[in-house]
Amino acid sequence: MIRQPMVFWATGALVVFCASFFGKSAERKIRMWSFGKTTDGEPTYRYLLANDKGMEVEIINYGADIVSLKVPDRNGKIADVVLGYDDLDGYQADKSYLGASVGRYGNRIAAGRFTLDGATFHLPRNEGPNCLHGGVRGFNKRLWTAADASRADAQVLEFGYTSVDGEEGFPGTLVAKVTFTLPSDKNELRIDYTATTDKATVVNLTNHSYFNLTGVPAEEILDHRLVLHAAKFTPVDATLIPTGEERSVADGPFDFRKPTAIGARIDQDDPQLRFARGYDHNWILEEAGNDLHAAAEVYDPASGRALEVETTEPGIQFYSGNFLDGTVRGKAGQCYGHRAAFCLETQHFPDSPNHANFPPTELKPGQTYTSTTIFRFSTRK
Questions:
Q1: Which domains does the chain have, with CATH numbers?
Q2: Which one from 58, 313, 345, 355 is the annotated catalytic residue?
Q3: Which of 49, 133, 219, 320 has its CA 20 to 30 A from that of 100?
Q4: Nearest to 63 by CA among 46, 75, 78
Q5: Is 345 considered catalytic here?
């Protein structure tokens, strides 16, 4: 019999919660400790999930951010493979969405405007003329509730947030949940998203972790070998808004159907690469549907670490860290330089509310938004 989820409460000191099971002698534990207070005086907490295979994931309730993800290399050496900050101040000041749970609408909405059921809604324009990742204070800048829902075979951490009607211009009160699951016997992190609303709205949730599989952020990711299971991508204009076209990747720098070094063609004289200063585009996944399907694979020859991504989403945004410029100071005082990491954001398409030919992102009362993504880690010789 599995116990019901336990809501965390705080004492300011390290707290350990143990899951108890009938007929099970082993205990699964999620650790929790204080991560400081926000500028509004609200306490925040850090949670550690660990399994039997050497994988550890740390997440905070501010932004439901992944702040650390440690996995072994081919020699068994454990290293943190995501960018982040050492303290809460870094996440409160962050403008790069390091590790963030992004919403209410991940990616860009043109001119901060969309029409739904005959009404036009205006959003903050926080990236040039457009709305990016939910606005000025999106889900990455909000405090989430946390609950331990661990099972005998996995540690499970549930985060909840209620976005009120009109928040950042979006209609409807949205009740969102993000669940992180770390199995005891697999080095994979599963992220499940659900949401309901009391008015018609749009929703597109994702995670914005920055990966560097070397475990050394000073190293560029240009030698990482990437596979994207996509024969088409959505070209963008100069402000990185999709034009509405679905273009073949064949015979160009956007073809990652076979393992290709990220840096192999990133500096080619291509208009799309110039617009984004590299890759910052949405690829249309070939096997898109309601079931989990392969989205991407990345391999780092130096460490032997490999990452596979599966998702239920129809698209994936591959971002090659083009706007990192050395001014972001992260863990242990490290400066995150140009192309020090990559992102693989599983998603519905950017600006979908303004493109009738794109998969719809509308959520109506009585419906439940669901989305799942798995980040699976392994090693190769």
A1: 6-379 (2.70.98.10)
A2: 345
A3: 219
A4: 46
A5: yes
